[in-house]
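Can you please make up a whole protein chain along with its C-alpha coordinates because I've never seen that pairing?
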Amino acid sequence: MSETHPSPRSAAASVPGTAAPRIANAPVSYGVFGHVSGDDAGRSPAEVLRTMRSVGYEGSELGPPGFFGSPEQTRDLFAETGLSIAGAYVPLHTVGPEDVLNLDLKRMRITLDELVTARCSSGPAILADEGSPELLSNPVHARSLALSDEQWRTSACIIQDAADLARDRGLEVSFHPHVSTYVEQPWEVERLLELTDVPLTFDVGHVVFAGGDALKHLDAWWERINHIHVKDGDLTVLRQALESKRTDFDNWWANLCTPLGEGDLDLENFLAEVLRRNYTGWLVVEQDRAPARSDEFSGVARDQAHNFDWLSSRIRAWGTGASSIPNGVAPATPVSSNTGNPVSAEKFE
Protein backbone atom coordinates (compact mmCIF):
# COMPACT_ATOMS: atom_id res chain seq x y z
CA MET A 1 0.00 0.00 0.00
CA SER A 2 1.34 3.40 -0.95
CA GLU A 3 1.93 5.85 1.86
CA THR A 4 0.70 9.43 1.81
CA HIS A 5 3.49 11.97 1.73
CA PRO A 6 3.34 15.73 2.12
CA SER A 7 3.41 17.78 -1.05
CA PRO A 8 6.73 19.48 -1.69
CA ARG A 9 7.03 23.15 -0.84
CA SER A 10 7.32 24.43 -4.40
CA ALA A 11 10.16 26.86 -4.94
CA ALA A 12 7.80 29.03 -7.00
CA ALA A 13 4.98 28.99 -4.47
CA SER A 14 5.30 32.67 -3.56
CA VAL A 15 5.68 33.81 -7.17
CA PRO A 16 2.27 33.00 -8.73
CA GLY A 17 2.41 32.26 -12.42
CA THR A 18 6.21 32.23 -12.46
CA ALA A 19 8.06 29.17 -13.69
CA ALA A 20 11.00 28.27 -11.48
CA PRO A 21 13.67 25.60 -11.33
CA ARG A 22 12.72 22.32 -9.71
CA ILE A 23 14.89 21.16 -6.82
CA ALA A 24 16.17 17.60 -6.60
CA ASN A 25 18.77 15.71 -4.64
CA ALA A 26 20.81 12.59 -5.34
CA PRO A 27 21.67 9.45 -3.38
CA VAL A 28 25.34 10.52 -3.29
CA SER A 29 24.33 13.26 -0.82
CA TYR A 30 23.22 10.47 1.52
CA GLY A 31 26.47 8.54 1.17
CA VAL A 32 25.34 6.26 -1.66
CA PHE A 33 27.56 5.75 -4.68
CA GLY A 34 29.41 3.04 -6.58
CA HIS A 35 28.26 -0.56 -6.20
CA VAL A 36 25.78 -0.25 -3.33
CA SER A 37 23.24 -2.87 -2.35
CA GLY A 38 21.03 -0.76 -0.09
CA ASP A 39 20.75 -3.60 2.43
CA ASP A 40 21.12 -1.25 5.41
CA ALA A 41 17.56 -0.41 6.52
CA GLY A 42 18.80 2.84 8.03
CA ARG A 43 19.42 4.22 4.57
CA SER A 44 17.50 1.89 2.31
CA PRO A 45 16.58 3.16 -1.15
CA ALA A 46 12.97 3.71 -0.08
CA GLU A 47 14.03 5.58 3.06
CA VAL A 48 16.35 7.84 1.07
CA LEU A 49 13.52 8.85 -1.28
CA ARG A 50 10.97 9.30 1.51
CA THR A 51 13.41 11.49 3.40
CA MET A 52 13.90 13.68 0.33
CA ARG A 53 10.18 13.95 -0.25
CA SER A 54 9.38 14.80 3.37
CA VAL A 55 11.40 18.03 3.27
CA GLY A 56 10.20 19.19 -0.13
CA TYR A 57 12.45 17.84 -2.87
CA GLU A 58 10.55 17.22 -6.09
CA GLY A 59 12.94 14.70 -7.59
CA SER A 60 16.04 12.59 -7.21
CA GLU A 61 18.69 11.39 -9.56
CA LEU A 62 19.12 7.64 -9.66
CA GLY A 63 21.87 5.90 -7.75
CA PRO A 64 24.06 3.10 -9.10
CA PRO A 65 22.33 0.74 -11.56
CA GLY A 66 19.85 -1.40 -9.67
CA PHE A 67 20.03 0.62 -6.46
CA PHE A 68 16.27 1.12 -6.42
CA GLY A 69 15.64 -2.44 -7.65
CA SER A 70 14.55 -3.59 -11.09
CA PRO A 71 13.35 -0.99 -13.61
CA GLU A 72 9.77 -1.84 -12.58
CA GLN A 73 10.57 -1.55 -8.88
CA THR A 74 12.30 1.77 -9.54
CA ARG A 75 9.21 3.04 -11.33
CA ASP A 76 6.92 1.94 -8.51
CA LEU A 77 9.09 3.40 -5.75
CA PHE A 78 9.30 6.81 -7.39
CA ALA A 79 5.55 6.74 -8.04
CA GLU A 80 4.88 5.83 -4.40
CA THR A 81 6.94 8.72 -3.09
CA GLY A 82 5.68 11.19 -5.69
CA LEU A 83 9.18 12.07 -6.83
CA SER A 84 10.37 12.50 -10.41
CA ILE A 85 13.62 11.07 -11.68
CA ALA A 86 15.87 14.07 -12.22
CA GLY A 87 18.56 12.23 -14.16
CA ALA A 88 21.03 9.40 -13.82
CA TYR A 89 24.83 9.44 -13.70
CA VAL A 90 26.54 7.23 -16.30
CA PRO A 91 30.34 6.94 -15.85
CA LEU A 92 32.41 5.72 -18.79
CA HIS A 93 36.08 4.75 -18.91
CA THR A 94 36.60 6.40 -22.27
CA VAL A 95 40.33 5.73 -22.27
CA GLY A 96 39.93 2.05 -21.48
CA PRO A 97 40.73 -0.63 -20.76
CA GLU A 98 38.23 -2.03 -23.25
CA ASP A 99 36.80 -4.69 -20.94
CA VAL A 100 36.09 -2.05 -18.29
CA LEU A 101 34.41 0.21 -20.84
CA ASN A 102 32.28 -2.72 -22.00
CA LEU A 103 31.16 -3.24 -18.39
CA ASP A 104 30.36 0.48 -18.16
CA LEU A 105 28.21 0.23 -21.28
CA LYS A 106 26.43 -2.82 -19.89
CA ARG A 107 25.63 -0.88 -16.71
CA MET A 108 24.59 2.10 -18.81
CA ARG A 109 21.97 -0.03 -20.56
CA ILE A 110 20.54 -0.97 -17.15
CA THR A 111 20.32 2.73 -16.24
CA LEU A 112 18.62 3.52 -19.56
CA ASP A 113 16.12 0.72 -18.90
CA GLU A 114 15.36 2.30 -15.50
CA LEU A 115 14.83 5.74 -17.02
CA VAL A 116 12.63 4.48 -19.85
CA THR A 117 10.56 2.13 -17.67
CA ALA A 118 9.95 4.67 -14.91
CA ARG A 119 8.22 7.12 -17.26
CA CYS A 120 8.45 9.75 -14.53
CA SER A 121 11.85 10.89 -15.67
CA SER A 122 12.30 14.49 -16.68
CA GLY A 123 16.07 14.49 -16.30
CA PRO A 124 18.86 13.35 -18.59
CA ALA A 125 21.18 10.41 -18.81
CA ILE A 126 24.26 12.19 -17.46
CA LEU A 127 27.39 10.88 -19.15
CA ALA A 128 30.78 11.38 -17.50
CA ASP A 129 34.37 10.39 -18.11
CA GLU A 130 35.67 8.15 -15.34
CA GLY A 131 39.32 9.18 -15.62
CA SER A 132 42.09 6.87 -14.44
CA PRO A 133 43.99 5.90 -11.27
CA GLU A 134 46.71 8.33 -12.31
CA LEU A 135 44.27 11.24 -12.44
CA LEU A 136 42.81 10.33 -9.03
CA SER A 137 46.27 11.01 -7.66
CA ASN A 138 46.60 14.22 -9.70
CA PRO A 139 43.47 16.36 -9.37
CA VAL A 140 43.55 19.51 -11.51
CA HIS A 141 46.15 17.74 -13.61
CA ALA A 142 48.97 19.24 -15.64
CA ARG A 143 48.64 19.29 -19.42
CA SER A 144 51.20 16.51 -19.66
CA LEU A 145 48.57 14.14 -18.22
CA ALA A 146 45.79 15.28 -20.53
CA LEU A 147 44.51 13.36 -23.53
CA SER A 148 46.45 13.35 -26.78
CA ASP A 149 44.67 14.43 -29.96
CA GLU A 150 44.11 10.81 -30.91
CA GLN A 151 42.76 9.98 -27.44
CA TRP A 152 40.44 12.99 -27.65
CA ARG A 153 38.99 11.70 -30.91
CA THR A 154 38.46 8.24 -29.42
CA SER A 155 36.97 9.57 -26.19
CA ALA A 156 34.66 11.97 -28.01
CA CYS A 157 33.47 9.19 -30.30
CA ILE A 158 32.63 6.97 -27.30
CA ILE A 159 30.73 9.80 -25.61
CA GLN A 160 28.86 10.71 -28.79
CA ASP A 161 27.90 7.06 -29.42
CA ALA A 162 26.68 6.72 -25.83
CA ALA A 163 24.63 9.90 -26.20
CA ASP A 164 23.10 8.61 -29.43
CA LEU A 165 22.25 5.32 -27.72
CA ALA A 166 20.33 7.19 -25.02
CA ARG A 167 18.60 9.40 -27.58
CA ASP A 168 17.53 6.31 -29.50
CA ARG A 169 15.66 5.30 -26.33
CA GLY A 170 13.86 8.65 -26.31
CA LEU A 171 15.99 10.12 -23.51
CA GLU A 172 17.63 13.48 -23.02
CA VAL A 173 21.39 13.39 -22.49
CA SER A 174 23.99 15.59 -20.82
CA PHE A 175 27.69 15.44 -19.92
CA HIS A 176 29.13 16.09 -16.46
CA PRO A 177 32.75 17.36 -16.19
CA HIS A 178 34.37 16.05 -13.03
CA VAL A 179 37.55 16.65 -11.04
CA SER A 180 40.26 14.00 -11.59
CA THR A 181 38.95 12.95 -15.00
CA TYR A 182 39.96 13.71 -18.57
CA VAL A 183 37.17 16.30 -18.86
CA GLU A 184 37.96 18.37 -15.82
CA GLN A 185 39.29 21.86 -16.56
CA PRO A 186 37.58 24.55 -18.65
CA TRP A 187 39.76 23.99 -21.71
CA GLU A 188 38.91 20.28 -21.62
CA VAL A 189 35.19 21.02 -21.34
CA GLU A 190 35.47 23.31 -24.36
CA ARG A 191 37.31 20.64 -26.33
CA LEU A 192 34.54 18.14 -25.62
CA LEU A 193 31.88 20.67 -26.66
CA GLU A 194 33.75 21.18 -29.94
CA LEU A 195 33.99 17.45 -30.68
CA THR A 196 30.44 16.38 -29.74
CA ASP A 197 26.91 17.73 -29.78
CA VAL A 198 26.25 16.60 -26.21
CA PRO A 199 24.74 19.22 -23.84
CA LEU A 200 26.38 20.02 -20.52
CA THR A 201 25.64 19.44 -16.87
CA PHE A 202 27.03 22.53 -15.13
CA ASP A 203 28.24 21.49 -11.69
CA VAL A 204 29.26 24.73 -10.03
CA GLY A 205 31.47 22.90 -7.52
CA HIS A 206 33.45 20.95 -10.08
CA VAL A 207 33.84 24.02 -12.29
CA VAL A 208 35.38 26.05 -9.45
CA PHE A 209 37.37 23.14 -7.97
CA ALA A 210 38.98 22.58 -11.40
CA GLY A 211 40.06 26.21 -11.69
CA GLY A 212 37.12 27.71 -13.55
CA ASP A 213 35.09 30.83 -12.92
CA ALA A 214 31.48 29.85 -12.36
CA LEU A 215 29.87 32.99 -13.76
CA LYS A 216 32.24 33.36 -16.68
CA HIS A 217 31.80 29.78 -17.77
CA LEU A 218 28.08 29.74 -17.06
CA ASP A 219 27.86 32.54 -19.60
CA ALA A 220 30.29 30.98 -22.08
CA TRP A 221 28.57 27.58 -22.08
CA TRP A 222 24.99 28.66 -21.45
CA GLU A 223 23.62 27.58 -24.83
CA ARG A 224 24.85 24.02 -24.15
CA ILE A 225 23.74 23.75 -20.50
CA ASN A 226 20.64 21.61 -19.87
CA HIS A 227 21.19 20.46 -16.28
CA ILE A 228 22.69 22.06 -13.15
CA HIS A 229 24.26 20.57 -10.03
CA VAL A 230 24.60 22.75 -6.94
CA LYS A 231 27.26 22.11 -4.33
CA ASP A 232 29.43 24.08 -1.93
CA GLY A 233 32.89 23.27 -0.66
CA ASP A 234 35.70 24.01 1.77
CA LEU A 235 38.48 25.17 -0.53
CA THR A 236 41.06 24.74 2.23
CA VAL A 237 40.56 20.98 1.90
CA LEU A 238 41.24 21.21 -1.84
CA ARG A 239 44.25 23.48 -1.38
CA GLN A 240 45.83 21.18 1.19
CA ALA A 241 45.21 18.11 -0.96
CA LEU A 242 46.91 19.77 -3.93
CA GLU A 243 49.81 21.21 -1.97
CA SER A 244 50.56 17.95 -0.15
CA LYS A 245 49.99 15.88 -3.32
CA ARG A 246 47.60 13.54 -1.55
CA THR A 247 46.82 10.37 -3.45
CA ASP A 248 43.90 9.17 -1.29
CA PHE A 249 41.25 10.92 -3.41
CA ASP A 250 38.19 9.27 -1.86
CA ASN A 251 39.28 10.25 1.66
CA TRP A 252 39.94 13.95 1.13
CA TRP A 253 37.09 14.37 -1.37
CA ALA A 254 34.63 13.12 1.27
CA ASN A 255 35.56 16.16 3.40
CA LEU A 256 35.45 18.75 0.61
CA CYS A 257 31.72 19.37 0.16
CA THR A 258 29.76 21.30 2.77
CA PRO A 259 26.10 22.16 3.32
CA LEU A 260 25.02 24.95 0.96
CA GLY A 261 26.04 28.38 2.17
CA GLU A 262 28.64 27.03 4.59
CA GLY A 263 31.53 26.68 2.16
CA ASP A 264 33.66 29.09 0.15
CA LEU A 265 31.69 29.29 -3.10
CA ASP A 266 29.61 32.40 -3.70
CA LEU A 267 26.47 30.43 -4.44
CA GLU A 268 24.12 33.38 -4.05
CA ASN A 269 25.65 35.19 -7.03
CA PHE A 270 25.66 31.97 -9.02
CA LEU A 271 22.02 31.18 -8.23
CA ALA A 272 21.02 34.78 -8.96
CA GLU A 273 22.55 34.57 -12.42
CA VAL A 274 20.85 31.23 -13.12
CA LEU A 275 17.50 32.75 -12.15
CA ARG A 276 18.12 35.88 -14.22
CA ARG A 277 18.41 33.61 -17.25
CA ASN A 278 14.96 32.12 -16.53
CA TYR A 279 16.33 28.61 -16.04
CA THR A 280 13.45 26.24 -15.29
CA GLY A 281 15.21 22.87 -15.35
CA TRP A 282 16.48 20.82 -12.44
CA LEU A 283 18.74 22.19 -9.73
CA VAL A 284 20.22 19.04 -8.22
CA VAL A 285 21.88 19.26 -4.82
CA GLU A 286 24.99 17.13 -4.55
CA GLN A 287 26.84 17.14 -1.25
CA ASP A 288 29.33 14.35 -1.91
CA ARG A 289 30.30 12.54 1.26
CA ALA A 290 31.69 9.28 2.55
CA PRO A 291 29.30 6.30 2.80
CA ALA A 292 26.95 6.98 5.69
CA ARG A 293 26.39 4.52 8.52
CA SER A 294 22.91 4.02 9.96
CA ASP A 295 23.75 6.07 13.05
CA GLU A 296 24.77 8.99 10.80
CA PHE A 297 21.63 9.02 8.68
CA SER A 298 19.67 11.52 10.79
CA GLY A 299 22.52 14.04 10.58
CA VAL A 300 22.84 13.53 6.83
CA ALA A 301 19.07 14.03 6.47
CA ARG A 302 19.29 17.30 8.43
CA ASP A 303 21.99 18.57 6.08
CA GLN A 304 19.82 17.79 3.06
CA ALA A 305 16.80 19.50 4.64
CA HIS A 306 19.01 22.56 5.17
CA ASN A 307 20.13 22.40 1.53
CA PHE A 308 16.54 22.35 0.29
CA ASP A 309 15.59 25.28 2.50
CA TRP A 310 18.67 27.26 1.42
CA LEU A 311 17.81 26.88 -2.27
CA SER A 312 14.04 27.10 -2.13
CA SER A 313 13.94 30.17 0.13
CA ARG A 314 16.06 32.15 -2.32
CA ILE A 315 14.08 31.01 -5.34
CA ARG A 316 10.83 31.93 -3.61
CA ALA A 317 12.19 35.31 -2.57
CA TRP A 318 13.81 36.22 -5.87
CA GLY A 319 11.66 34.54 -8.51
CA THR A 320 13.09 34.38 -12.02
CA GLY A 321 13.96 36.97 -14.64
CA ALA A 322 16.34 39.92 -14.74
CA SER A 323 13.97 42.30 -12.96
CA SER A 324 13.28 40.07 -9.98
CA ILE A 325 16.74 39.71 -8.42
CA PRO A 326 17.52 42.17 -5.60
CA ASN A 327 20.24 44.77 -6.15
CA GLY A 328 22.22 43.32 -3.27
CA VAL A 329 23.09 40.25 -5.33
CA ALA A 330 25.77 41.37 -7.76
CA PRO A 331 26.05 39.13 -10.82
CA ALA A 332 29.29 40.73 -11.96
CA THR A 333 31.30 39.15 -9.12
CA PRO A 334 32.91 35.84 -10.19
CA VAL A 335 31.97 32.97 -7.92
CA SER A 336 35.59 31.98 -7.48
CA SER A 337 36.88 35.45 -6.57
CA ASN A 338 37.83 36.39 -3.01
CA THR A 339 37.17 32.87 -1.78
CA GLY A 340 40.72 31.63 -1.39
CA ASN A 341 40.38 29.42 -4.46
CA PRO A 342 43.82 27.83 -4.71
CA VAL A 343 43.53 27.12 -8.42
CA SER A 344 43.34 29.60 -11.25
CA ALA A 345 41.94 28.75 -14.65
CA GLU A 346 45.22 29.87 -16.21
CA LYS A 347 47.43 27.59 -14.12
CA PHE A 348 47.81 24.92 -16.75
CA GLU A 349 47.43 27.01 -19.90
Summary: Residues 46 and 77 are 7 Å apart (CA to CA). The longest strand covers residues 84-92. The radius of gyration is 19 Å. The chain has a mean pLDDT of 86.
